[in-house]
Amino acid sequence: MTEHSTASAAAPAAATTAAAAPARSGATGPASGAGRTPGILRSGLSSVRLELRGYFRTPDTVFFTFLFPVLMLGIFGVAFEASGDVGTKPDGTGGISMAAYYLPGMIAAGIMLSGLQNLAIDIAREKSEGWLRRLGGTPISPISYFIGKAGQILITSVLQVAVLIAFAVVVFRVELPSDPALWLRFAWIFLLGIVTMTLLGIALSALPRSSRSATAVIIPIVLFLQFISGVYLQFSMLPDWLQNFASVFPLKWLAQGMRSVFLPDHFAAMESSGSWDLGLVAVFLLGWLVAGLVISLCTFRWIRRS
């Protein structure tokens, strides 16, 4: 954790330096507001680079948010390999390996780990350790700060999904979709999911009372949602009341949307409604996106209120 704190501490400090120069140079006359947006964007892009550097310098963060889905896919793929294919039709066709079945759920879980879990813990720690208070006393805009966070999450999530899919193809010979329409569907579900989880991570960062409690508060919530949302357990195996409860939260819909991309069409019959319900996937993710945005705007402060 010391290495993690050192790496992340460098990012806010450097972001402050990058933001201060544009702010000073733009304050020379009445038209100074015209230069603020480029300055904010430049500071945000610089923050992205620093956040990425700090992220990959912390082995524990890389493992638990970047490589953890790969590890879990490997465990499930090997553990259930002997049970044969799942979803085989009566005529003996249409079955897929357990690794292929778990792949979409692990992609959804990886998005949640990178966006919600990692960001909530990271911001809570920076707030508790005083970095946000220091940033609040500088000309840096909160927009630049969050551009850095969001950019890091987007880039690491893309890399994580690429590594996860490559691992599934190379190790377990998982066949990927060949229809371009399915990859277009994957793109909008992925982008909507990562924005939603990012905003929820910002909102959830207000919950821990200190940096020491951040992990203990956030991780159990994330694990609970993974187990009830069809990531580690087949969603149809859960009792109806638990399915209804899980359907309130975004991870269930994100995992369902990913299953619609990577699983054969006849697997839709295993969903609670008997179809992929892509319209509901979009509605629930957008609803949680708005909720995360509103909560973030209401609760985020450079300094925690006591």
TrEMBL record:
InterPro entries: ABC-2_transporter, ABC2_TM, ABC2_TM_bact-type, ABC_2_transport. The lineage of its organism: Bacteria, Bacillati, Actinomycetota, Actinomycetes, Micrococcales. Keywords: Antibiotic resistance, Cell membrane, Membrane, Transmembrane, Transmembrane helix, Transport. Coiled coil: none annotated. It is a multi-pass membrane protein. It is found in: Cell membrane; Membrane. The chain crosses the membrane at residues 62-80, 100-124, 153-174, 186-207, 214-235, 280-303. Belongs to the ABC-2 integral membrane protein family. Its main location: membrane. This is Transport permease protein. Residues 60-306 form the ABC transmembrane type-2 domain.
